[in-house]
User: Fold G-protein coupled receptors family 1 profile domain-containing protein from Lymnaea stagnalis.
Amino acid sequence: MRPRRGLGRTSCMLLAINLVFIFTFTPFMALELFKAAKPDVVHAMSEVPLAIFNLFLKSHLLNSAANPIVYSLCDVSFRRQCRQFLKRR
Assistant:
């Protein structure tokens, strides 16, 4: 039996999920650290910058929306089960 080379499907899917988590959690963590380090700057923001700041503060929620997309792109059985679920509805 020959050893497999390269990444398998599961490894690719888990790598993609981890990358999505890192990309969506990093802005949240950076803004939280900024807010803890410089609270006076955050409190002095006007309406538009504060709205943008709060929007990016919720970037970690994108991970929940992106996970099903990653699963559907990488896993055939997940797509099949989603189709079956949607047909029942």
Notes: The chain has a mean pLDDT of 89.
